[in-house]
Amino acid sequence: MSGKNRGRPHRRPGAPRGEWIGIVRRVDGGSGFFVPDDKTHEDLYLKGPNLGGAQDRDKVRVRPLGFAPQGRRAEGRVIEILERGIHRLVGEIRRHGAFYYLLPLLYRFYETITVDAADIQGAKEGDRVVAEIAGYNPLRAKVAEVIGPSSSPDVELKTVTAKYGVPQEFPRDVLRAAEALPDRVERDALKGRSDLRNMAILTIDPFDARDLDDAISFERRSDGNLCVGVHIADVSSYVRPGTPLDDEAADRATSIYLVDGVIPMLPPKLSNGICSLNAAEDRLALSAFLNYSPAGQLLGASFSRSVIRVTRRFHYD
């Protein structure tokens, strides 16, 4: 390479052309990456003015620049913001003199978000709030809901529900469906199940846990082999596809555990009741039996729908 060309941008073979649509992911105050919808294209680096005022998660139209310094990622330039990605966010109110601003929690906003005094809704410095973006250039927000002081013990639970849109309360039709379920295992539910209620079965969970969904058993066989039983609460016997309970559980996807509480996937009547493997209570389960040799070699496994009765509840302490 001649000295006069060293250090100049080099056009890559088959350099990208045209315009692409995709999502912006910000990484700091002056740069980000463009992730194209069309996965046959590569990501592009956006820096400085090439961001075009785009924020994290914005859907944009980008024009690839078609060249990059040798060995580096190709760059692009945002030419149109098609849709803003974040309209509501959770943050803490800060104050500097007579001016208020919002400190986002776990959002990639790198420019100052100001809040007019008329839009503060009584929030004080240090309060966590749910805010709506009122303008993007420059960034402005208005408080939609005051969650509470960041030092309050229950503010984390409220913050999670606000940030991720997870409701703490269940809809009425879901609660009605839960209330219609039995409090105890009914006789008809035992048909076709292995009766393991005389087997020694135990649970091990945190001391304050209420939703106990798995249990174990151990049995030494006459041939010296060890049978380990793993027993999982058979929730599918009570939560049927297409029902309000099933739809709500699918929307929530999982129970969310926090230091000071839990947001359950199923109403308490199920999660803490009929679907919880409480000691001395008959419960429907799915059981797996793993057979091990005295040397610890897995010899085989079997499975069955079962009814169990936990003999004793243990906790980690």
Q: Into which percent range does the helicity of residues fall?
A: 10-25%
Outline the biggest β-sheet.
5 strands, antiparallel
Residue runs with pLDDT of under 50 for 5 or more positions: 1-15
Q: Oligomeric status of the shown chains?
A: single chain
Structural class: mainly beta
Q: What string, H for helix and E for strand, traces the elements in order?
A: EEEEEEEEEEHHEEEEHEEHEEE
Q: In angstroms, what is the radius of gyration?
A: 28 Å
Shape: elongated
Q: What's the pLDDT, averaged over the residues? A: 88
How much of the polypeptide forms β-strand, as a percent range? 35-45%
Largest sheet: spatial strand order = 3-2-1-4-5
Q: How many β-strand runs?
A: 19
Question: How many DSSP H or I helices?
Answer: 4
Could you characterize the architecture of this molecule?
It is a single chain. This protein is mainly β. 11% of the residues lie in helices and 40% in strands. The longest helix is centred in the middle third of the chain and has 10 residues, at 155-164. The termini are far apart. The model is unreliable at 1-15 (pLDDT under 50).
Can you give me a brief rundown of this structure?
The protein has helices spanning about 155-165, 170-180, 245-250, 270-275; strands spanning about 20-30, 30-35, 45, 60-65, 75-85, 90-95, 100-105, 115, 125-135, 140-150, 195, 200-205, 215-220, 225-235, 255-260, 260-265, 280-290, 300-310, 310-315.
Question: How is the secondary structure organized here?
Answer:
Elements (H helix, E strand, L loop, with lengths): L19 E9 L2 E6 L7 E4 L11 E6 L11 E8 L4 E9 L2 E6 L8 E3 L11 E10 L2 E11 L5 H10 L7 H8 L14 E2 L6 E4 L8 E7 L5 E8 L10 H9 L3 E3 L2 E3 L4 H7 L7 E11 L5 E12 L2 E4 L2
Parallel strand pairs: 8-10, 11-18, 12-19
Antiparallel strand pairs: 1-2, 1-4, 2-3, 4-5, 6-7, 6-9, 7-8, 9-10, 13-14, 14-17, 15-16, 17-18
